[in-house]
Amino acid sequence: MRAITAYLRERGLSTDKLVLLPPPPSDGEAWKRSKEDRLGIVLERSPKDNALNRRYYDACRRLAAKLGVDVLDFWDDLNDPKMFEDGLHFSAAGSDVVFKYSSTPP
Hints:
By secondary structure, this protein is mainly α. It has helices at residues 2-10, 28-39, 50-67, 75-78, 92-103; strands at 19-20, 70-71. It has a single domain, classed as SGNH hydrolase (Rossmann fold, 3-Layer(aba) Sandwich).
């Protein structure tokens, strides 16, 4: 993200036009079931881990602060199984939350 931000700045995009989108939470068990159903296999554990997702989310927020760019801070509003179709991809409700955050000035 640091390199992408630097690349965009080098090409003239101002800091006030940049917004970092951190990785959202997920519903690991729902994603596991979805993968198992789709692939016809049994997985030992979920391929998604919210603890790890949160570490990346927090790192993205820290980087945004350090670089002086905005970040969408939507974790709490998305940390609900109803926000996902299959545990990973947003439902209509999840998409509405992301839209709300991305269309509202910081």
